[in-house]
Design brief:
By secondary structure, the protein is of the alpha/beta class. It contains 9 helices and 14 strands. It starts with 29 loop residues before the first strand and ends with a helix. The N terminus is likely disordered. Bound molecules: succinic acid.
Length: 359
C-alpha cells in the first residue's frame, strides 16, 4: 500500500454545516471531522479485495456521504488535513494535526473533534494528542480495517460511532479516545493487535472504557493518568529538526550491540528497548545500553510482549544501569512520551522516570 504520492493536502475542503437540512440541526453538537487518510479512505478495484488496496485516496466528503444518519447526530464541519497511509506518518503531519485540533477546540463553534486515521500508527498519534491537546472537549480517533470499496466495509459504522461518542456529551475530559468496532478505548492503553481482523484494536490487560452501539454510548470506567490540560507537553513545531531523536531497538536471541552503538554514534537523545518478557534484555544489548546511558542517552526499558507492565528494578536493575522503566507503555508509546519529555528540556534520569510514572 503506497501513500498517495506521499503528499499532504492541508485543510483542502470544508463541508458547511448549513448544508445539513435535518430538522433541528442547529441544536446538534458541532463536530469537526478531520481526515488524514488510511484504509478508511482506501480503495481497491475489486470489492472482495481487503489487502491489496491503496490507502488514503477517498476524500472526506465521500467518507461522510457513506454514513447514513450522520446529520441526525451532529452538525459536521469537515476538513481533509492529509491523505496518507499512516505507516508514513511524519513529525510534520503530527504537528499540523495537533495544531489544527487545538485551534478547532479553542473555537466556541466546535464541540468536539473526530479524526479518521490509518490503523497502523493510530495508537501513536492518539497518545501524542492525548498528551498535547489543550482542551477538555472530546477528541475521538477512528479508522477501518477494510477499505471503503470493500464488501462489509467497517469504516462507515466506525465513523458514525466516533461522531456519536464525540456528540454524546459524555466523552469530554477523558483525553483522547479511540472508537473502533463498537468499543471506546483510552489513547494510552489502546493497541492494534491484528493484521487483518475487523476487531483489530484492544486495550491489552486493562480493557476498553466502554461501548457505543446503535446510538448509545456506555462508559464503564475512566482512565486515571493525567492527560491533555494536565500535562506540560505541547507540539508546536512542524520541522523534524525540533523533535528529539529517539529510536527503538529490540532484544532477541543472539542480538549484537551494533544497532545501539550506531545510534549513539549518530547522536540520538534517547533509545527505547523492547525487551523480552518483563523488559529483560540480552546481556550483550544490556551492556551496550548501559554504555549509552553512561554517555547521557536516555534509555527506556519497555517490553516486546504487548501486554502487562515492566517493573522498575525488576528484570533489570534500572537504577544501577541508568535506565528508565516504561511501566505499562508499549515501546512505541514510550518513544512518544520520551520525545515529548526530552523536548521540555527534561534530561535527568530521575525526572524522566517521574514522567513515566505519571503519564
Ligand atoms: C494505514 O495505516 O494507513 C493503512 C492501514 C489501515 O488503515 O488499516
Amino acid at each position: 500500500m503506497a501513500a498517495p504520492g506521499g503528499s499532504l493536502k492541508i485543510a483542502a475542503m470544508t463541508t458547511s454545516s448549513s448544508s445539513q437540512n435535518a430538522a433541528g440541526a442547529s441544536a446538534l453538537p458541532r463536530i469537526a471531522v478531520l481526515a488524514t487518510g488510511g484504509t478508511i479512505a482506501g480503495s481497491a478495484p475489486d470489492a472482495a479485495n481487503t489487502a491489496g488496496y491503496q490507502a488514503g485516496v477517498i476524500g472526506v466528503a465521500q467518507l461522510l456521504a457513506a454514513v447514513p444518519g450522520l446529520d441526525a447526530v451532529a452538525q459536521i464541519h469537515a476538513e481533509e488535513v492529509a491523505s496518507v497511509d499512516s505507516k508514513d506518518m511524519s513529525f510534520a503531519l503530527w504537528a499540523t494535526l495537533a495544531q489544527r485540533v487545538n485551534a478547532l477546540l479553542a473555537s466556541d463553534d466546535i464541540d468536539g473533534v473526530v479524526i479518521t486515521h490509518g490503523t497502523d500508527t493510530l495508537e501513536e498519534t492518539a497518545y501524542l494528542l492525548h498528551l498535547t491537546v489543550k482542551s477538555a472537549k472530546p477528541v475521538i480517533l477512528t479508522a477501518a480495517m477494510r477499505p471503503a470499496s470493500a464488501l462489509s466495509a467497517d469504516g462507515p459504522l466506525n465513523l458514525l460511532n466516533a461522531v456519536t461518542v464525540a456528540a454524546s456529551g459524555q466523552a469530554g475530559g477523558q483525553g483522547v479516545l479511540v472508537a473502533f468496532n463498537n468499543r471506546m478505548h483510552c489513547a494510552r492503553d489502546v493497541a492494534k493487535i491484528s493484521t487483518y481482523a475487523v476487531d483489530a484494536f484492544q486495550s491489552p490487560e486493562i480493557g476498553a472504557l466502554g461501548w457505543v452501539q446503535d446510538g448509545r454510548v456506555d462508559f464503564q470506567r475512566r482512565a486515571l493518568r493525567p492527560h491533555t490540560l494536565d500535562t506540560p507537553f505541547a507540539v508546536v513545531d512542524e520541522t523534524a529538526a525540533q523533535w528529539p531523536q529517539v529510536e527503538i531497538v529490540t532484544s532477541y536471541a543472539g542480538v549484537s550491540r551494533i544497532a545501539v552503538d550506531a545510534l549513539v554514534s549518530a547522536g540520538v537523545r534517547g533509545i527505547v528497548v523492547a525487551g523480552t518478557g518483563n523488559g529483560s534484555i540480552h546481556a550483550t544489548l544490556q551492556q551496550a545500553l548501559a554504555d549509552a546511558a553512561a554517555q547521557g542517552v536516555a534509555v527506556v526499558r519497555a517490553s516486546r510482549v504487548g501486554s502487562g507492565h515492566v517493573m522498575h528494578n525488576g528484570a533489570a536493575k534500572d537504577d544501577a544501569l541508568g535506565f528508565i522503566s516504561a511501566g505499562t507503555l508499549s515501546p512505541y508509546k514510550a518513544r512518544v512520551l520520551l520525545m515529548l519529555a526530552l523536548a521540555t528540556g527534561s534530561t535527568q534520569k530521575d525526572a524522566l522516570q517521574r514522567v513515566f510514572d505519571t503519564y
